[in-house]
Design brief:
7 strands; alpha/beta; Rossmann fold; 10 helices
Length: about 270
């Protein structure tokens, strides 16, 4: 593993790493010197990302994983530690936009499945990965939350509650990890025409219950250069993982937020 780059010598686990924001974050981490374990359900996508990283001189391990299955997660962390080294970076990025519609319309099992992906999966991942961080007194956890975590929108309860929970979980992990050298952050990754957006646009339920949102996303998708936030999100994750902003542990940020300004304001606060 190369020691060059801001993250040289580090080992990262990134969920939802087969495409979109997870892929961009994993590739940027590898470019900055981290060895990266790629977690998602699709082996084909993960293998392709791993090949791209290897072709650019980085190191990656493709680990097909169901993020809601405890055995899968434990095995993924075990293999990461065995083949790459102790985990000290975790990016919890996997997510789904569904189900759409009012509470009394949503299928309870599908609604709860969304919470398993947004909440149960990250908790199990941290349960498996954090002991090594605590023991080595070195770790950083980033939850890819969403701007929805500070919004109230009818018809989007599962997504909003799942992303809000991730934001709160980051705050709690930051407090619990403080004396052990472990930081935690939550971020809004920005807006990109990812598969999650396509799933939303193509959902009859979203079209029925959230027509305004579907219309706005459709117009966005037609704009040129809709992928700009991929690089900006990856940079934000590198900045947070670098240690430079450890004093902001527990904070939520959006891409328009100035981390240096946030840090300065925190340092002068009474």
């Amino acid at each position: 593993m190369t020691s060059k780059g801001v993250l040289g010598g580090r080992v990262a686990v990134v969920t939802g790493a087969g495409r979109g924001f997870g892929k961009a974050i994993a590739e940027r981490f590898a470019k900055e010197g981290a060895a990266v374990a790629l977690l998602a359900r699709s082996r084909g996508e993960l293998d392709a990302v791993a090949r791209e990283i290897a072709g650019a001189g980085g190191k990656a391990l493709a680990l097909p994983t169901d993020i809601t299955a405890g055995d899968d997660i434990r095995e993924a962390v075990r293999r990461t530690q065995s083949e790459l080294g102790p985990v000290d970076l975790v990016v919890s990025n996997a997510g789904v936009p569904w189900p759409f519609g009012p509470i009394w319309v949503n299928d309870p099992d599908r609604w709860w499945k969304a919470q398993e992906i947004h909440i149960k999966g990250p908790q199990m991942l941290l349960h498996a990965a954090m002991p090594a961080m605590v023991a080595r007194r070195r770790g950083c956890i980033i939850f890819v939350s969403a701007i929805a975590s500070r919004m109230t929108v009818a018809g989007l309860s599962a997504y909003i509650l799942g992303k809000s929970a991730q934001r709160r979980l980051a705050e709690i992990v930051a407090i619990e990890g403080q004396e052990h050298g472990v930081t935690a952050f939550s971020i809004d990754p920005g807006l990109v025409a990812t598969q999650l957006m396509e799933d939303t646009l193509n959902s009859p339920d979203a079209q029925r219950w959230l027509p305004g949102m579907v219309e706005r996303l459709g117009k966005f998708r037609e704009l040129p250069d809709t992928d700009g936030d991929l690089a900006r999100c990856a940079q934000r994750c590198v900045d947070l993982a670098s240690g430079r902003y450890d004093a902001l542990s527990g904070c939520y940020s959006e891409l328009t937020d100035d981390l240096d300004k946030m840090l300065a304001e925190m340092q002068v606060a009474p």
